[in-house]
Amino acid sequence: MKSAGKSNPEKRNATSEDVAQLAGVSQATVSRVFAGGANVSEKKRKKILDAAAELEYKPNAQARSLITRKTMMVGIIMRNIKDPFYSAVLEIFHTRLSPLGYQLIFNNSENEIIEEWEIAKLLEFNVEGIIVTDALLSEGATRKLKRSGIVSILFNRHAEGLNCSAVYCDNYLAAQQIATYLVEMGHRSFAFISGPRNTSTTVDRLKGFQEVLRERNIKELTIIPGTYTYESGFKSAQELLTRNKKIDCIFCGSDIIALGVMDAARLVGFRIPEDLSVVGFDNIRMLGWTPYPLTTWEQPLEDMVTSTVELLLKEIDDKNAAPRIIAMKGRLVIRNTVRKKK
Amino acid sequence: MKSAGKSNPEKRNATSEDVAQLAGVSQATVSRVFAGGANVSEKKRKKILDAAAELEYKPNAQARSLITRKTMMVGIIMRNIKDPFYSAVLEIFHTRLSPLGYQLIFNNSENEIIEEWEIAKLLEFNVEGIIVTDALLSEGATRKLKRSGIVSILFNRHAEGLNCSAVYCDNYLAAQQIATYLVEMGHRSFAFISGPRNTSTTVDRLKGFQEVLRERNIKELTIIPGTYTYESGFKSAQELLTRNKKIDCIFCGSDIIALGVMDAARLVGFRIPEDLSVVGFDNIRMLGWTPYPLTTWEQPLEDMVTSTVELLLKEIDDKNAAPRIIAMKGRLVIRNTVRKKK
DNA sequence: ATCTATTTTGAATACGTATTCAAAATAGAT
DNA sequence: ATCTATTTTGAATACGTATTCAAAATAGAT
After folding, report:
1. B163 plus B255 within the same structural domain
2. What's B100's domain CATH number?
3. What pLDDT is stored for residue B162 in this prediction?
4. How many CB atoms lie within 10 A of CB A255?
5. Which spans of this chain does the record mark as coiled coil (chains A, B) (predicted)?
6. In sequence order, what are the residues at sequence separation of 6 or more whose Cβ sits closer than 8 angstroms to the Cβ of residue A6?
7. Could you give the C-alpha distances from B223 to B94, B190, B236, B261, B262, in angstroms and in order?
8. Closest C-alpha to B111, from B133, B79, B142
9. Are A258 and A279 in contact (CB under 8 A)?
């Protein structure tokens, strides 16, 4: 049992009832002024607004949501907030949702697949939707959300038959275009230092990349899965390059991985791009930094967030809308880590 | 007016009333089971839990908070989420607050001083507390929060007479120790590339740093304020070093600034640490990366968050507790960007 | 001034829970 | 078996709002 604390006689916040009394109207009319929409005579409206200002009245969001069945809250579950790509994602989501009156409940998870227990609290708080970045929802979690009438959207992932909307960058197409570019620049011996092996992200990119190599009859592709971190990229590249000096070019699963790869390569003695080409993915802001002029694939971050929010709102409005999976294009950003081989 | 959407007959979530009916008890008893604390006979408790499981019942947080006057929500306002130091801060706050049942409402702000309008929504949502990182609250905002019974705590800032608790790293002490170390390493000509000029962070550090220089009768200190970004550090250093080749050592307001400084210095032709020493502040994870073996001041991040949360809980429990300002020590982390001058 | 159509208003109610208070049930002692 | 002390229970209520429904007020036409 919790102590109630030594708080004051608890001066409570003003309620619509208090405002009504001071303004000499009914609570219903006060509510009409603040809920908007309904007609209130100018005279009373002014009285009410004055009274509200004097009492510093603000509507109580919990009481309101009990009636309207709209909590105006959205949960966001992030797995990789330390990656600057995802810091940016969070910031943009806030920028988009805040003007719409939605509050963003932040959640962290270490898990590749979000299970039911991780969303239990969000369910109790009746968020209207959940955005999951860089992770999947378990089948159980998806079902539970569906039954509870809570919209869920995967950001930067997608999953077959999960009955859940998703917005992601078309990794298959991106990898194809990257591979084509690299082959045209004369490279023949590749490595793909990727994120976790079985995620859609990795699978799609590998598929696109391999397809191009196959068409051109290029056999040399070493695949090294890992995590989306500098350290993982560093370690993978270090091992790879001390073992196999013949690699022409490394395609990285993310920019952060690529930074680790570049540092490891230089340490082992490779010059970039003279001895080794490196390509990243995401186009994080750090690529403007001197040591890392990385050629990369830009994800259309702003547009991806915009689409996600649109989808979210639409499904909140119509819970029976069929899930949609939106693949967005990106573009190759050429900097200075891919050389042209003669 | 919003369309209600084409939603289903809206299958509503189960309520305690539904559970009570199925279990053959009163709503009050169901509530007792889920609110905890009160006595309920084992027989009924089991019946209720079974019924709840069958109906997938979960308490409604909004309805609950209306009664208990506890929303179990905390707002966090961040100004610099792109800085990896603050990404880490956010992650740790979530890690600490989540097990306590608190939800974290994320807010972004560009502003150095948070005004009333920026916290208005958090007030409507009746968060129990607000954590402000890397920014201040305006006097108006502070007063308003106080009157509304909402706890506020500054993280990594403090302000005289703002009547608001704060947890920060003792920047004065840190700067003194850094300065002492640098002087002992033989440096005599300094620059301080800082964050915004009038923040407590900058003021305290400058004071500590200058004090040591004065004691040793060292006059050369160029002060260049800016923002806590790579770009700001880069630009400041570039201008400084092309103009003034005699600088021995640059003390930076944050690691991110230091990274920009190092890259700019190298571009201008300085070797680090042979020609120029650089010291950072924060000890972000990136300093493990090859190009940036930065000597820096480590902020006791985990402990700072822990203290902030403790303070938060205590003040939530006792709204009349006097604000406390907690300064925490850190430690010098010596890597490889400060040379010993003969 | 009178009548009708329209707008504005307030009383009553519901949202889903926790808690109070008194009654009922149970446990424990003899 | 009876009586008392303790535990368990349910009915009633309150939290603060939005909305419904019917009544009151107003606007507009003649």
Report:
1. no
2. 3.40.50.2300
3. 83
4. 28
5. none
6. B318, B320
7. 36, 9, 10, 14, 17
8. B79
9. yes
The verdict on pTM exceeding 0.90 is: yes
User: Do A198 and A119 fall into the same domain?
Assistant: no
Candidate from A81, A125, A319 with C-beta closest to B7: A319
- Dihedral-angle region of residue A109 (phi above 0 means left; psi in -120 to 50 means alpha; beta otherwise): beta
Looking at the domain assignment, is residue B2 inside a domain? no
Kindly state whether residues B192 and B295 are assigned to the same domain: yes
What CATH number does the domain containing A61 carry?
Answer: 1.10.260.40
Q: Is pLDDT above 70 for A224?
A: yes
Question: A160 pLDDT band (50/70/90 cuts)?
Answer: confident
Task: Report whether A24 contacts A47 (CB < 8 A).
Answer: yes
Query: Are both A293 and A176 inside the same structural domain?
Result: yes
Q: Same domain for A180 and A291?
A: yes
User: Does B283 have pLDDT greater than 80?
Assistant: yes
Inform me whether the pLDDT recorded for A159 exceeds 90.
no
Mean residue pLDDT of chain B comes to: 93
Sorted by sequence, the CB contacts under 8 Å of residue B129 that are 6+ apart come out as B74, B75, B150, B151, B152, B153, B312, B315, B316
User: Do residues B295 and B182 share a domain?
Assistant: yes
What is the SS3 assignment for A335? Answer: coil
Alpha-helical (H) ranges within B80-160 are 84-97, 116-124, 139-147
Domain that holds residue A295: 171-299
- Domain-embedded: residue B238: yes
Q: Three-state SS for B303?
A: helix
A-B CB pairs within 8 A amount to 167
Q: Please indicate if any CB of chain A lies within 8 Å of the CB of B37.
A: yes
Q: What average pLDDT does range B84-112 have in this prediction? A: 97
**Statement to judge: residues B185 and B237 lie in one domain:** yes
Q: Do A107 and B124 touch (CB under 8 A)?
A: no
Q: Is the pLDDT of residue B6 over 70?
A: no
The model's pLDDT over A88-125, given as tens digits with 9 standing for 90+, comes to: 999 999 999 999 999 999 999 999 999 999 999 999 99
- A211/A312 same-domain check: no
Interface test with A, best of B290, B301, B316 (most A CBs within 10 A): B290
Examine residue A1 and state whether it is found in any structural domain, yes or no: no
Domain count within chain B: 3
Mean pLDDT over residues B3-9, rounded? Answer: 40
Residues of B in contact with A11 (CB under 8 A): 149
The answer as to whether A340 is a domain residue is no
